[in-house]
């Protein structure tokens, strides 16, 4: 059996199994749908019947309310005037002569006070129901008053003059509600009692033909075929005013058109599915026949190649897997055909390769030393007679000699490369050191304080420009408490990394000390003792540290060998701040520092700087000097903003230098006091 035939049979079997599975699932779904439909039908009809009964009892209750409020009815009933009672009721719209209407008045002693038929022995209510009604309970619902008679009634308890408590009972035949129920369902409806007697029916002949055996107390829903018509038969139990079942409502809903339409759709779907399966199987067989043609041709080619015949070829090649097999067979056929030609070309190619190798060896010999090159060329031109494969042997000897010479030359070049590599490593280390210095510079600038938090009492600004990647100058300002502000400018001896490290240590120790030692003299003395203990590098630092009381403007400061700062009044007067006579920090352990005070007025400015300003040199080796700095400050420093003052000083120094390299670190700190009574903004 051909492969395509087996595949077609397997697919057809799969389609058959799939269709059976779908058919079984459809039957199961239909059964579930029928069950759900039956439950919905029972629930829906039960709700509809309750609504109809509730609507009828509501109408009856409104009629009894009008009867109870009629004075003529009460007077006639009090005098036992039966014609008067009947007339009063008819005036209220109740026709007691109608066979479908029931009206009774029962007294507290269970006597019939009035009955619509004029008989006093009709009891619509049983004793238990009458007792409940006499107690004031309103009874509404169904009541079976005969073997095949069921009514819908409601009661009302009233007080009659001279007769005491009485119960008004008004009812209508349940067949009226059953007809409304049938119209609501668009179905035929029959009301039967518990004994199976028909109370009323909208199609009595259909009921007799159906010959149903129902259980009135249990709701049921089923389908049946009667005289070629399809019906949904639903039976729901109905309860009376005592909540006991009195019968059942049986409805016949004609579903012939729906069933026929459903059957037609199902038959059409089955026929369509069978047709699609047949078309699919036939189409698959045709497709497989067309797709397997290259495979059959490839088999023919392989069989011909096995016989040594290379004339057979594949006629059609596709892009699928079978087409790829056919293409591979075609490639195999081409390879077999080319094999013989390859053997014929081998000798010719070998001779060409020998010539090419010789030419390449000559070119390679040009890359070595001239002396070696001449020897290699001479060896290459020399022939050997009487040997087999003389050309290849000669080329091998030349290649061996040439490789030896190249190795020797490579050794010499390797020595040179090692020397160059060592020089490159040295250069790389220098570049790494430069990068580390740049990182240290960024870290040093990062530890300096940034902008001072806005405060209406003071403005402060610092600026530092290192002469190298890192410097030994630093400035700092910080709030000691809500009133006192500490500020400092310092200059470490030397430059570069040692000065930068010593600066970082001094700044950290001073800030931590100042938070516990409120006196500037005590803070500087403690800093001096800490730095002078193990100062093996003999570094020192000049410091000007002060504390300003922002509420009063009192400044307490210590000058440890630093440049004298300038005080600039609001009027523009410039003067130096007196020195306290202290030596540089870290020189002598145990040195006692003295602090001085000065009072700033609102608008006064303190300008602190390092010797990088006054000791800056131009291209002619002339110093900037304190006089030039004082002249600059007197030219309007009181009117400049705090950041602008430092920037103008730095710009003046750069202009003075005229391109000369910066000799030392330049640091400026400007503090302007505005008074201690302005509103203060929190940090």
UniProtKB/TrEMBL annotation:
The keyword Membrane applies. This is SpoIIE family protein phosphatase. InterPro entries: Bact_Sigma-Reg, HAMP_dom, PPM-type-like_dom_sf, PPM-type_phosphatase-like_dom. Keywords: Hydrolase, Membrane, Transmembrane, Transmembrane helix. It comes from Xanthobacter oligotrophicus. The chain crosses the membrane at residues 269-290. It comes from the Bacteria. Residues 289-341 form the HAMP domain. Pfam families: HAMP, SpoIIE. Coiled coil: none annotated.
């Amino acid at each position: 059996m051909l492969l395509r035939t087996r595949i077609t049979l397997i697919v057809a079997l799969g389609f058959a199994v799939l269709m059976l599975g779908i058919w079984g699932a459809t039957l199961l779904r239909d059964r579930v749908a029928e069950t759900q439909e039956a439950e919905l039908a029972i629930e829906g009809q039960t709700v509809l019947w309750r609504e109809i009964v509730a609507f009828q009892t509501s109408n009856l209750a409104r009629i009894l309310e009008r009867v109870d409020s009629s004075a003529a009815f009460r007077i006639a009933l009090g005098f036992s005037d039966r014609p008067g009672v009947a007339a009063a009721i008819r005036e209220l719209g109740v026709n007691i002569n109608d066979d479908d209407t029931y009206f009774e008045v029962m007294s507290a002693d269970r006597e019939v006070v009035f009955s619509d038929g004029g008989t006093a022995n009709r009891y619509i209510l049983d004793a238990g129901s009458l007792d409940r009604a006499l107690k004031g309970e309103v009874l509404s619902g169904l009541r079976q008053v005969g073997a095949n008679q069921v009514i819908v009634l409601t009661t009302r308890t009233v007080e009659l003059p001279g007769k005491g408590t009485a119960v008004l009972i008004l009812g209508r035949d349940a067949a009226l509600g059953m007809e409304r129920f049938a119209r609501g369902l668009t179905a035929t409806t029959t009301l039967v009692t518990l004994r199976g007697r028909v109370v009323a029916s909208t199609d009595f002949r259909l009921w007799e033909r159906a010959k149903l055996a129902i259980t009135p107390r249990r709701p049921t829903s089923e389908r049946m075929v009667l005289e070629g018509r399809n019906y949904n038969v639903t039976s729901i139990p109905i309860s009376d005013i005592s909540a006991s079942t009195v019968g059942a409502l049986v409805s016949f809903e004609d579903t012939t058109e729906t069933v026929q339409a459903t059957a037609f759709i199902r038959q059409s779907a089955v026929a369509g599915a069978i047709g699609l399966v047949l078309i699919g199987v036939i189409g698959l067989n045709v497709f497989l026949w067309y797709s397997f043609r290259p495979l059959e041709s490839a088999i023919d080619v392989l069989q011909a190649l096995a016989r040594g015949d290379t004339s057979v070829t594949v006629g059609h090649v596709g892009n699928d897997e079978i087409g790829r097999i056919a293409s591979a067979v075609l490639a195999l056929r081409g390879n077999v055909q080319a094999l013989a030609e390859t053997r014929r070309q081998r000798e010719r190619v070998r001779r060409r390769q020998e010539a090419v190798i010789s030419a390449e060896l000559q070119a390679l010999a040009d890359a070595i030393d001239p002396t070696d090159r001449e020897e290699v060329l001479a060896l290459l031109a020399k022939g050997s007679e009487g040997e087999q494969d003389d050309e290849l042997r000669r080329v091998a000897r030349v290649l061996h000699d040439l490789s030896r010479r190249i190795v020797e030359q490579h050794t010499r070049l390797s020595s040179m490369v090692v020397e160059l590599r060592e020089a490159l490593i040295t250069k790389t280390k220098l570049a790494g050191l430069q990068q580390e210095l740049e990182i240290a510079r960024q870290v040093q600038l990062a530890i300096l304080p940034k902008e001072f938090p806005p405060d209406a009492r003071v403005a402060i600004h610092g600026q530092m420009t290192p002469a190298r990647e890192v410097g030994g100058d630093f400035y700092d300002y910080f709030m000691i408490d809500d009133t006192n502000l500490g500020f400092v400018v310092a200059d470490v001896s030397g430059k570069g990394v040692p000065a930068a490290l010593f600066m970082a240590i001094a700044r950290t120790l001073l800030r931590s000390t100042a938070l516990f030692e409120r006196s500037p003299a005590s803070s500087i003395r403690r800093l001096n003792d800490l730095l002078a203990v193990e100062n093996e590098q003999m570094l020192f630092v000049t410091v000007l540290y002060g504390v300003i009381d922002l509420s009063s403007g009192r400044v307490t400061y210590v000058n440890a060998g630093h440049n004298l700062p300038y005080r600039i009044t609001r009027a523009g007067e410039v003067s130096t701040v007196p020195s306290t006579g202290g030596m540089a920090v870290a020189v002598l352990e145990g040195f006692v520092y003295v602090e001085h005070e000065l009072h700033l007025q609102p608008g006064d400015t303190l300008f602190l700087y390092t010797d990088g300003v006054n000791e800056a040199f131009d291209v002619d080796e002339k110093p900037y000097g304190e006089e030039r700095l004082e002249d600059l400050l007197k030219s309007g420093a009181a009117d400049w903003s705090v950041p602008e003052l430092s920037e103008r000083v730095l710009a003046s120094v750069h202009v003075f230098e005229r391109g000369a390299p910066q000799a030392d670190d330049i640091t400026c700190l400007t503090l302007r006091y505005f008074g201690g009574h302005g509103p203060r903004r929190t940090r």
